[in-house]
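Researcher: Next sequence.
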Amino acid sequence: MNQEDQSAFRCWKCGNEIHVVRAQAGAKVECPYCQSPATVPEQLFGPPVARTIGPTSSTVQQKSPATAAVLNFLFWGAGYVYAGRAWGWAVLIPYILLTLIGLASGSQCSTADVLIATLLTLPIDFALGWHAYQIVKEGH
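Model: Next structure:
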């Protein structure tokens, strides 16, 4: 064990040195001289080392490229908003408004018209889905 992993501090009751190792920082120990409980000062070994329990913040905030792609395929701009791009709202809001207008006038459209419109928008659906997928995958 090297010198940096060992240190000592004085017992609050008897004043004798208590020798400890880095792993004991912040833990309760017993003074070998007077058997009084003492907490090893965390600052004894310098600034505290960051400890992670569970997933790190980068994995918690990590987005799924597939989710972004599906959202953008189904609702233009939703995948961008999911990916954290504020400008995605500029795509999503007009899409929602146009969809609502289309639904309001849906009784005037034949089934063939809806099918043709759906087929014509498929390339855009795929392109937007792929773009959102790439944005999340590459972390842009």
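Model: The beta strands are 6-10, 17-21, 28-30, 37-39. The chain is about 45% helix and 10% strand.
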